[in-house]
Amino acid sequence: MLELLKAMLWGIVEGITEWLPISSTGHMILLDEIIRLDVTENFKEMFLVVIQLGAILAVVLLYFNRLNPFSSSKTTQQKKDTITLWYKVVIGVLPAAVLGFLFDDWLDEHLYNYITVAITLILYGVLFILAENRNKYRRAPINSMKALSYRTAFLIGMFQVLSLIPGTSRSGATILGGILLGASRSVAAEFSFFLSIPVMFGASALKLVKFGFNFSGLEIAILLTGMAVAFFVSVAAIKFLLGYIKKNDFKVFGWYRIVLGLIVLAYFLISGLGK
What we know:
It is a single chain. This protein is mainly α. The chain has one domain. It is 77% helix and 0% strand. The protein contains twelve helices and no strands. The chain is globular, with a radius of gyration of 19 Å. The two termini are 32 Å apart.
């Protein structure tokens, strides 16, 4: 029972931090120091990725009609526009999909550490603040998915490659990239959500294949609990973010990242000195 309660907490953290540009990895590292799941390291590594399936299903639910090119309620032109949107998503996914597949193990081995996470939290926090200051009096030229070109979609996908580095935040990298390339906050955020669908499904499938499917009853319960909680919390987090950015910028998330990065750095430095 205790492990299921822990899984619920991990699901809450995943559901919030996956969509806000504040790095789910940074939060997971701190959470792991405070509340450890009593499971094998291999299962925990897989759990941290596969739990994202719950978060992804929230996007599918909220945007199902918009992303469904076969909806009977759509006109022929709307169906064509939806297919075009999927083409842009595929183009945007390619860079991270290829490089992630090739370097997944290397990245986990060499960059999954608190120093990398702390640095990237702080760095992208600063970049968010600078980007918002730069765009303060500018009008974003890309205010709809139709206005988002294939070239821009690909370049946002290149920003998504940065999220392979722990602590960057996948949503943070793609939203920041979209803003710098001229997209409005809402377009950048929504395109980031859409890019997450194939990326996170693919990452989860890769981890499941590597781990295998020989789960114990408790492991299945932990996995399903984390996914279910992540799903419901993600629905709320996505709605919050879309409502928030209609009247506010991303600076608050930039400052939050900087503070969290300093906390991560200080915590592990002090922990290291105490040993």
